[in-house]
């Protein structure tokens, strides 16, 4: 008997967003809509100095990590938040960022 994870369709990408249908099932995103994906979908200025609010689509019963680095193509991703529980359809997290340029990404924790 195959484990349920081995039965997911990891190769097809029905919506063409770069994530396989199987991974979208795990992430809780819509595999038929390219606008539904696991990733940072918004960033806006917060109220505090050097504060930025990151947002991403989330799904119930999911937990996320957030990462940053100063160069998009080089360097180590540094974990800036861990175990961020999904609280609604779109999660938000405030980061304090000096005037340097940073890049952000999110990842899904699988229990």
Which key terms come to mind for this protein?
mainly beta; 1 helix; 111 residues
Total of DSSP H or I helical runs spanning 4+ residues: 1
Share of helix, binned? under 10%
Uncertain stretches of 5 or more adjacent residues: none
Oligomer: single chain
Distance between the termini: 22 Å
Work out the radius of gyration: 15 Å
Structural category is: mainly beta
**Biggest sheet: strands, sense, closure?**
3 strands, antiparallel
Query: Which series of helices and strands comes N to C?
Result: HEEEEEE
Mean pLDDT: 85
Widest β-sheet, arrangement of strands: 1-2-5
Number of strands: 6
Shape assignment? globular
Which percent band covers the strand fraction? 35-45%
Task: Give an account of the 3D structure.
The protein has 111 residues and is mostly beta strands. It is built from 1 helix and 6 strands, in the order H-E-E-E-E-E-E. The strands form 2 sheets. It has a 3-stranded antiparallel β-sheet with strand order 1-2-5, with no helix packed on it. A 3-stranded antiparallel β-sheet has the order 4-3-6, with no helix packed on it. A hairpin with an 8-residue loop joins strand 3 (63-69) and strand 4. The chain is globular and about 45 Å long. The two termini are 22 Å apart. The mean pLDDT is 85.
Brief summary:
The chain is 6% helix and 38% strand. It has 111 residues and is mainly beta. It has a 3-stranded antiparallel sheet with strand order 1-2-5, with no helix packed on it.
Present the secondary structure layout.
Layout: H1 21-27, E1 40-45, E2 51-57, E3 63-69, E4 78-85, E5 90-96, E6 103-109
């Amino acid at each position: 008997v195959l484990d349920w994870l081995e039965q997911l369709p990891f190769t097809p990408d029905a919506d063409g967003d770069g994530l396989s249908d199987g991974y979208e099932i795990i992430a809780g995103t819509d595999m038929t809509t390219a606008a539904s994906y696991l990733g940072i979908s918004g960033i806006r200025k917060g109220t505090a100095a050097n504060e930025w609010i990151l947002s991403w689509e989330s799904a119930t019963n999911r937990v996320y990590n957030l990462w940053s680095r100063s160069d998009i193509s080089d360097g180590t991703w540094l974990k800036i938040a861990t175990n961020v529980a999904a609280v609604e359809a779109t999660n938000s997290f405030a980061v304090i960022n000096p005037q340097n340029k940073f890049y952000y990404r999110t990842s899904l924790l699988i229990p």
